[in-house]
Amino acid sequence: MKNVDLKKFKSCYFIGIGGIGMSALARYFKLIGFNVAGYDKTETSLTKELVKEGISIHYDDNGSNIELAFTNPESCLVIVTPAIPSTLNELNFFKENHFILFKRAEVLGIITQNSLGLCVAGTHGKTTTSTMLAHILTVDELKCNAFLGGISSNYNTNFISSETSNYSVIEADEFDRSFLKLSPHAAIITSIDPDHLDIYGDKSSFLDGFKAFADLIQKDGVLILKNGIDLPVNCKSITYSLEGRGDVVGTNVRIINGYQELDIHFEKFIWKNVQIGIPGLHNAENAIACVALCNYLGISEEVIRLGLASFKGVKRRFEVHYRSQSKYYIDDYAHHPTEIKAFVESLRFLFPEMKILVIFQPHLFTRTRDFIDEFSTELSKVDELILLPIYPARELPIEGINSELLLQKVTLQKKSLMSPEEALHYVSSIDDVVIATIGAGDIDKLIDPIIFTLNSTNNA
User: Fold this and answer.
1) Total Cβ atoms within 10 A of residue 3
2) Pick from 1, 200, 183: which is nearest to 102 by CA?
3) Residue 169 parent element (H or E)
4) Which has the closest alpha carbon to 116: 252, 194, 218?
5) Given its phi and psi angles, is residue 369 left (phi above 0), alpha (psi -120 to 50 degrees) or beta?
6) Domain 6-102 is in which class?
7) Predicted pLDDT of residue 3
8) CATH 3.40.50.1000 fits 115-310, yes or no
9) pLDDT averaged over the chain?
10) Are 342 and 124 in contact (CB under 8 A)?
11) Is residue 379 within 8 Å of residue 409, measured between CB atoms?
12) In whole angstroms, what is the distance from residue 291 CA to residue 178 CA?
């Protein structure tokens, strides 16, 4: 970790400012009085919002033609996303002129060193769980600064701010071992299903990463751990589960007047009829983790209940976009077999009598290769499947690894490979169905067209 006092800088330049994690940091530095600007490859709705907030952004590689306010290495901090190629001229300008360059995780590490960091880690569920946790803290007088991996539907942002709170909520990302830069006071670990094997190499090394993360928690802090995860800890630990064992356990999940409720059992008492503002069995489990930590922090039952009931979720996490008597449309970020399993189980729980059509865009050639059997097993549990081509993200193609291979392994009768345009046309022709788009690539570009198509069909 670089030993740098952030207070000595007056400006902050972001290379890759449009990323969900980078943009949250950009908003933070803007809030605390920094002059903020940055570069990204393409304009998005998120970068447009940043510009509205007074942050200067451009989309051409300007090389050494950087704005004057960001050309002094003594006063300008540079934050870089790992996704940026080493050939970018702007990046090389800062390197050649001896600017201090940080990765996003390193800056978050400094923030957790200077606050009470509440870090949410796990292969699945960390975005919703961290956003739910931040919302409860914001409802409470404790408040927080929260750096989120998604857009909160309550606040329409990925950065929740407080100028008075000493708590920081951090989504602790295991990708590239970024979470090992943090200094957690407390943490939640939701799951440790292997992922990112292109980074870690094998499942054993992936598990070692989480062991190292758990070891970072301060001795006087706490780890909230999903029951069944075996990790050595050097601090207090509290286990949780849904319909299982643990120190905090949720039971009797049901839908009452359209809302999800459950009972939460502690060692010596029970909270009955706890309402959660969003559906999904996996979200009920995420809520239990938040309850365990918030109760440990001393937040009252009344405030926790209010926070859970008023939580509206995260964009692209079990987000309901359309509903009629014969059709529902839901979008989700699920891109790992375990996430798909939880998502489909929640759909079956909510819509037991309806046909489920899933449109899935695989994310990364390596992930598809490493988990192709697991993907095929979970995708075979829906009623109909449409596969889109693999979204490559940072990767080059791998020979023989494609959506056609995955489709062959899926055991459904009703399955097909389509382009996004073909899938859009198809959904307009069917009824009595729950339509779900899932994936972590650019499948979100289909959301608005599908909503428009469904509304047009319904009004025809």
Assistant:
1) 5
2) 1
3) strand 167-171
4) 218
5) alpha
6) alpha beta
7) 63
8) no
9) 93
10) yes
11) no
12) 26
| Model pLDDT, residue 4 | 74
* Matching residue, tokens 């870089």: 80
The average pLDDT across 167-173 equals 94
Letter for the amino acid at 384?
E
If one counts every other C-beta atom within 10 angstroms of the C-beta of residue 317, the result is 23
Please determine, for residue 459, whether its predicted confidence score (pLDDT) is greater than 70.
no
202's tokens? 């094998």
The CATH fold assigned to 319-459 is Protein-Tyrosine Phosphatase; Chain A (3.90.190)
Distance CA 281, CA 73 (A): 50
Q: How far apart are alpha carbons 177 and 175 in whole angstroms?
A: 5
Can you give the pTM of this predicted structure? 0.84
Tokens of 20: 């969900």
Phi-psi label, residue 96: left if phi above 0, alpha if psi -120 to 50, beta otherwise: alpha
State the burial class of residue 180 (Cβ atoms within 10 Å of its Cβ: 0-12, 13-18, 19+).
middle
Domain locations in the chain? Answer: 6-102, 115-310, 319-459
Q: Say if strands 259-265 and 415-417 run parallel, antiparallel, or are unpaired.
A: unpaired
291: tokens are: 């309850």
**What's the rounded Cα separation, in Å, for the pair 84 and 41?**
9
